[in-house]
Each structure stands twice: as C-alpha cells, then as structure tokens.
C-alpha cells in the first residue's frame, strides 16, 4: 500500500498544527510540522548569536543541522526543542529565515524524503502548492488576523510570556506579508486545496470537517 500524504497549509495561527496533530493520531500516521523545522534553524542561529540578516551563515547552519520528528517531538541535533522554538523571539524572526531559497530547498528535500518513507500529515505554508503537489489530500486553513492574534496571545500568556495583543497583531501581519510575497515557494492556496475558515469554529469542528473529506 502506498504512503498517504495529507497537506495542511495556511497562515500563522490558523490552527494547522493543532488539528494536524489530532488527525495524525486518529489515522495513526506521522505528523510533520514543517514550520517547526524553520523555527529550529532560527532558534539555533539565535542561540549561536548569528545575525538573522547574514544569509551565508544561516545557510551553513541549515546544511549542518539534523532535524527529525519522533512521536510528535521535534529533535534539533538529537535534542527535543518543542518549547525552545516557540518563543516570541523565534516567532518574530522565523519568516526572515524561511524566505531564504537555499534553506527552503534543504528543508523541502528533507520533507519529501519523510513523505516517501511513511504516511504523513504535513503542515506549513507551501506543502500542497510546492512540496507535495500530488498530495492525496490538500487543505488550506485560514482565519482573520485578529482571531489568529488572539489565539497566539492566549497561548503565549499561558506559557508566562509578557506580551501585548497589538504587538502580536503587527507581528502576524508582517509574517503574512513576508510569507505570501517571498519569491520562492510563497504562501498560496493550491488550486485543488479545500479551504476551511477556522475563525468561528472550534478545534473539534475543524477536525470533523477535514475527516469527512479524508474518510
């Protein structure tokens, strides 16, 4: 039986990771958070005091970094970094790292290898439009900027970060612009993707809607 690939794309805060994790468990397949891969590179660069504007140094980091996923954990050079990659500092810089073509090519190659090895549900910005154009199922999750910002605000507050909603709204608007206007593999809805607006839906409703298509 061939591997199944489910692509889930959309902007920051639309709920991709949350629903993809639940569906992965329901279907007993691997969940790959591609955004976390770019976050891991960003986190490593910050930790090593690399200037986020230094493309050559960032590309070198990407070439010499091991990223893997096991049981819903992301491993950076053999260490679980689930929480470390979710800080506001990483969030504010990840789109700048992710727009570098050479880094995307390295990550996309890794993502495709994962999809060839086993069945996956993969979320990101360009999975259905670029990484897996022939994915078995393609979804595009979206929500209003304010709704996405409120979700991120609550999430960060629960983790103890001192953040302001206005700042998060600005950050999301900047990330949306960088993600959708980058030259290589930008954030776009694939023509054959099923679009779901999650603004007025809870997690269970979104999962149920997606599962109907998959089943």
Model description:
With 215 residues, the chain is of the alpha/beta class. It has one domain (5-198): Rossmann fold, CATH 3.40.50. It contains 9 helices and 8 strands. The chain starts with a strand and ends with a helix. The mean pLDDT is 95. It holds the Pfam family Cytidylate_kin. One of its GO terms (cellular component) is cytosol. It catalyses: dCMP + ATP = dCDP + ADP; CMP + ATP = CDP + ADP.
Detail the topology: elements first, then pairings:
Elements: E1 5-9, H1 16-27, E2 30-33, H2 34-47, H3 55-63, E3 67-70, E4 73-76, E5 79-80, H4 88-98, H5 101-117, E6 120-124, H6 127-131, E7 137-142, H7 145-158, H8 165-181, E8 194-197, H9 203-214
Parallel strand pairs: 1-6, 1-7, 2-6, 7-8
Antiparallel strand pairs: 3-4, 4-5
Helix pairs in contact: 1-9, 2-4, 3-5, 4-8, 7-8
GO molecular function: ATP binding; CMP kinase activity; dCMP kinase activity
Keywords: ATP-binding, Cytoplasm, Kinase, Nucleotide-binding, Transferase
Family: Belongs to the cytidylate kinase family. Type 1 subfamily.
